[in-house]
């Protein structure tokens, strides 16, 4: 809905390696905050300077309580945040 394409499209299963993400070279990396873990995850991704998402400062942390809550209110709130942040 934001106009992007998920690099996980077509992947069977819920987890992939960092190597897979690096190979796909995403333009944006979305991280669910999960408390302090989200900031640490963003720092780890920032080390991969060859990634388009890192070069263009497009590592985005979203609120896990909202983005992972499947209600119409939180879905639209998170979608609006992503659109505002991406564009």
Task: Give the tags.
globular, 5 helices, mainly alpha, 87 residues, two-stranded parallel ribbon
Explain this structure.
- The protein is mostly helical and 87 residues long.
- Helices cover 46% and strands 9% of the residues.
- It has helices at 18-24, 37-46, 52-55, 64-67, 72-86; strands at 29-32, 59-62.
- It has a two-stranded parallel sheet.
- It is globular and about 35 Å long.
- The model has no long low-confidence stretch (mean pLDDT 91).
Give the rounded overall mean pLDDT: 91
* Number of helical regions: 5
Shape: globular
Strand content: 5-15%
For the record, give the distance between the C-alpha atoms at the N and C termini, rounded to a whole number. 13 Å
- Say how many strands there are: 2
Helix content: 40-55%
**Which structural class should the secondary elements be placed in?**
mainly alpha
Low-confidence stretches: none
Reported for the largest beta sheet, the result is: 2 strands, parallel
Cα-atom Rg, whole angstroms? 13 Å
- Compressed to H and E, one letter per element, the order equals HEHHEHH
Strand order of the largest sheet: 1-2
Gist of the model:
With 87 residues, this protein is mainly alpha-helical. The protein has 5 helices and 2 strands; from the N terminus they run αβααβαα.
Give me the secondary-structure topology.
Layout: H1 18-24, E1 29-32, H2 37-46, H3 52-55, E2 59-62, H4 64-67, H5 72-86
Parallel strand pairs: 1-2
């Amino acid at each position: 809905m934001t106009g992007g394409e998920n690099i996980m499209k077509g992947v069977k299963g819920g987890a992939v390696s960092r190597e897979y993400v690096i190979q796909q070279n995403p333009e944006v990396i979305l991280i669910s905050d999960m408390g302090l873990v989200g900031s640490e995850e963003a720092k780890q991704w920032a080390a991969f300077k060859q990634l388009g998402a890192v070069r263009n400062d497009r590592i985005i942390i979203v609120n896990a309580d909202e983005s992972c809550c499947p209600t119409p209110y939180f879905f639209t709130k998170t979608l609006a945040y992503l659109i505002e942040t991406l564009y």
